[in-house]
Structure formats: structure tokens, C-alpha cells
Amino acid sequence: MAPIAKKSGKGKAPKTTKKFIINASQPASDKIFDVSAFEKFLNEKIKVEGRVGNLGEIIKISQTGDGKIEIIAHNELSGRYLKYLTKKFLKKMQLRDWLRVVSTSKGVYELKFFNVVNDEAEEDDE
């Protein structure tokens, strides 16, 4: 087989800046979700170039408003990865049974309570 020629493009792709917002205001107002602990968790767990704790100037995580966390990434960071980390935090805090992560629009994730239907009242009627 012939060797594969490398492309000699000197120009790199332009830097992409993505902004993500995780809105946890609903569970934070009920005092079951600690936003500052979640911010610390994200700082510790987000991987940059395959290494944990390597954020530097590439990714900024800040707490804005009541129960909102804003992530500004100057590299390729996927929203699915943030959703995965949010679910992992919920599981760690044993909140996964009550909360779910829903994408309300592009780059915006919201923590919502599961809709609990009272099944016992329906069973009593039968």
C-alpha cells in the first residue's frame, strides 16, 4: 500500500467558543440541590485533552444568578458530556430518582423534578 500523504495545511481551524447553561434553580430553591458543590464537581471532573483538572484558561465555570451555572468553553466541549456529568453528580448525591436533566434549548440544560402521579388513589378506586 502506498503511504498516506499528510495534508500540509498550515492554518488551524478557528477557535470555537461554546456557552452552556445548566439551570438548577428549581431544586436549588427547594434546598435539595447544592449549586456550589455541583460547580466544584464540574471543576474537578471535566476533562481537557484527556486529563482531569486541566481546565486552565480553556474552560470557565461560573455560578450566575439563582441556581444557574454557566460554562464557557474555548474548545470542543459537547453538551452531552455536561449532561453525563450532571447525571453522575445527581447519582452521587442520591438525587437521580427525583431529578432529571432536560435540554430546553441549544446549550441550555435544566434540572426538573419527575412528574409523580399518585398511583395509590387509582388503585383504591378499582
From TrEMBL:
GO terms for molecular function: RNA binding; structural constituent of ribosome. It comes from Lasiosphaeria hispida. This is Ribosomal protein L22e. Belongs to the eukaryotic ribosomal protein eL22 family. It comes from the Eukaryota. Pfam families: Ribosomal_L22e. Keywords: Ribonucleoprotein, Ribosomal protein. The keyword Ribosomal protein applies. GO terms for cellular component: cytoplasm; ribonucleoprotein complex; ribosome. One of its GO terms (biological process) is cytoplasmic translation. InterPro entries: Ribosomal_eL22, Ribosomal_eL22_sf.
